[in-house]
Fold each of these.
Amino acid sequence: MTHIDELAALGTSTWLDDLSRDRITSGNLAELIESKSIVGVTTNPAIFAAAMSKGDSYDAQIAELKESGAAVDEAVYAMSVDDVRDACDILLPVYERTGGQDGRVSIEVDPRISADRAATIAQARELWNKVDRPNVMIKIPATPESIPAITDALAEGISVNVTLIFSVARYREVIAAYREGIQQAAEKGLDVSQIHSVASFFVSRLDVEIDRRLEEIGTEEALALRGKAGIANARRAYAVFQEIGRKDLPEGANVQRPLWASTGVKNPDYPATLYVTELAGPETVNTMPEPTIDAVLEQGGLHGDTLSGTADDAQAVFEQLVQVGIDMEDVFAVLEREGVEKFVSSWSELLDSMESRLR
């Protein structure tokens, strides 16, 4: 029994935060499922930008797309959809074994349309139909403008990975959007047991931003709080999940599990497994880059359920952060804006690179 298996026994599913054609064609993804107990995959624009800029795995398809006269956006999504569809097929046995909870592969809508509800739901629908696999999840960012599109997608029976959640206040809005979408789906007569969702809460990015501010403040009290905000924030979110995550769902509906994202540590002074061992608990997902997965397998360090019953201590950390001068509202606003901007930048770089290759 590996440490990833132990994590699963605590209630946390481990998904791989990476995908490339090389992983698929070489058998690497299948091997990770078999040997490292990986039960899902998440992608984002930065991941596809990295995958498509390396090696020659996509050359043949690029040549075909060039011959057909495909536009650059169309070409990038054609390749992305093919990768996600193939990954879905590889993970299908996991999906069937877990009743649809795991075995999932996520693909994200274009980050450039995150402020456009109509465009977001239109592309979510398009990606859902193009991948055409029951275990795909469409990633929609939790921006104020896109949250209604989350409800729209769920109401149509589309499984959704809600991404770029930073604050507990926004998370409450996400839970409400999920509840409304599932209720609408039930009213339409859809089988809500087949609709799944996760709420992706970003962890390490919060520590990066707050640690920087704490170091600028420089007092002993401030410096003592470094590395504590990300875990405390996620634990506060988990308390909200336990409080209202199951409320007012139609019969047969699944809960929307919290998913811990951005769990590779950015500060080398922190343990590589920090955002895994301290965020283990029932009905959660942790999507990790492969180095973090390997660190968990090698180091372990799990010490039981580290989520349940932690709300009071987590709230105390936040109160201390405010007391030393951290403006939490500004932190969350900055992170949400930069989160979208970073994905837009990665996507734009990929489009520019692909356009030159298609020409």
Note: The chain has 16 helices and eight strands.
Amino acid sequence: MKINHQIYIKAPSEKVYKTLTTAEGWNAWFTDHTVLYMDENGGGKINLCWSNYGSKKENIKDGGAILAAVPNKSFIFQWSPGENPTTVQFELRPYKDGTLLLLDESGYASSPKDISACIGCAVGWGEALALLKIFIEYGIICKEDYRF
């Protein structure tokens, strides 16, 4: 199973890339206490953290290895929203006056836990990319608004 999304962001790829490859960037549009370390070769580690998330007000931590980071072109990492690690790839392409951001997530198995995680992430990534667009284009931080 694979998740695919794309969104147009009216901003240069440098700005989108910086938002995706820094803890400050993630914490501005999606998470609360993410920690991200990248080495000079584009590897590293990402720990995504959410506090009081969703209707159950859960504290969630997930993350894994950063597999590749090519400045202004791509950012690839692993995490484990189900029972198996998945790979999330952001690809940035110049388009019109901005950036076309493509997201692919792969690695889900056919187990009930992975299928449930895949469905949740398919919806979640769509919402998250909209939040990313609003943040980058307008500087609006609205992640609190979607925590019902």
Note: The chain has one domain: 2-146.
Amino acid sequence: MTRTDVTFPSSETTCAAWLYTPDSGSPSSPAPIIVMAHGLGGVKEERLDAFAERFAAAGYASLVFDYRYFGASGGEPRQLLDIASQRADWRAAVAYARSLPTVDPDRVVVWGTSFGGGHSIVTAAEDKRIAAAISQCPFTDGLASSTATAPWVSAKVAVRAVRDVVGARLGMAPVMIPTYGPPGSTALMTSPDAVSGVEALMPPGADIAKGAAARIALQIALAFPGRKAKDVECPIFFAICEQDTVAPAEPTQRYAAQAPRGEIKLYDTGHFDIYVGEWFERNVADQIDFLTRHVPPS
């Protein structure tokens, strides 16, 4: 396995990515590739390498990218989280993956987690050439996620979001909001496990910005990517955490059941637990089983 730093164009800027290539990949024996991206304000260093390494060991290439405005990718202003822009980055990443000489362009898999799990559903629904999809602890229902937050917290977040929208129209710098915080704080994720969960994903000593332009809170409440599950024609694997207080499991299960070739795996744990430890081991093994059945690496 080799990991290479690459970039690819997306709109007016570039996205940074890691390209994982299994030893078996070559122009004469192209490998399937898994296009991967993180959740709300997440970057590739937050445990996506752990998944990509396992996939490479199983014979899959992976393209693990940061959204524009985040991590090593370009774009200004920094930390601007915008649904339309992120979905455009997914399309650009898939196009770049298909252009690689060591990749089979007809065996592209999309893999998204949390907020990115919703993007992977939408990407697979809209691009009928996608071979398979994985949606891990996915954000599928903005109303359900919003109502899972205490009303006074939602009110404080909404005030900051409106300030950001008004300021943007006046040409001002973004009004920022933390992507996570303790219960009752003014942040996008304030579940009891948010602080410990997010920080468990960060490499030791990492300095990763954990804020976003507050306007995203207004987009979240009106986003329902799960509704696209019924339009996904390829096999799609849903890894759903039954104790999820960030992306509630009940609506996700309803949406996942509508996918014509959907496979659902339930994990009796919280939103952040399937990235690490024993739950990670179970989860990644299930994902590799799904991949080898539907998009074998040979």
Note: The first strand starts at residue 2 and ends at 10.
